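Entry 14. Two folds queued back to back today. First construct below, sequence then structure tokens.
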Amino acid sequence: MKSAQHLASVDHIRNNPKFAELVRKRTVFAWTLSVIILVVYFGFIGIIAFNKTWLATPLGTGVTTIGFPIGVGVILSSIILTGIYVYRANGEFDELNRQIIEESR
């Protein structure tokens, strides 16, 4: 069973305007990154579905096609977006979290 002090602390944190700001910022940021990566992934699948011949076009005189660097770009975009999230989470979001914890003590 949770103590009354613990429940009061939880209520104090939930009522803190910085907590509401943290939740709002993190939610908007996560949804933004999710939409970006979904557009990238479904865009690539859409090209595969509707324009396979363009993706199969060779680059130069070699055997590498246009689809290969685009596929690598899809993978790299998810890595980059993950890095952007981690950078912001470790900076701005962690700082807000630290402030909220300090104010709840």
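Second construct, same run, same settings:
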Amino acid sequence: MNLFAKSLAVVSALFLLAACDSTPGSSAGGKNGSGTSANAGNAKPGSADDLTQNVGDRVFFDDNSSILSGEAQHTLDRQVAWLKQYSNVNVTVEGHCDERGTREFNLALGERRAAAAKKYLAAAGVASNRISTISYGKERPAVIGSDESAWSQNRRAVTVLTNQ
């Protein structure tokens, strides 16, 4: 097995292990929109709640980055399948940042994050005219706080339905 295949196998195994984590605030908890929840299955199919609870409505980014991680791509792959199933649904991808940095810097970074998610969805077969983007920069934090645990939840792109 070559080095790339070994690395891919290790990364895949780590993602599988991470998916098993169900501690509060972990990326596997439904509260952060990652697609698993105690309420999974209770949402009306094709609704915003269905997207949030059963698919995952947000992806997270590293500090000062708009590069999609493997976990982010996995969530976006689930979104692609869901959007293909519900072809009448249009979405807006919201780009967000943590509280650090200037307003202007964070608006630009939020736009790059939203654009990265849109580009991924479109490249996977979702019509780009169904996807709009907006950046909120640091203006709409998901978690209030001035530490890494808060910042990591605020560095995100969130897919929201624009029609029902």
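Quick look at the second one. Confidence is low (pLDDT under 50) at residues 7-32. The two ends are 48 Å apart (CA to CA).
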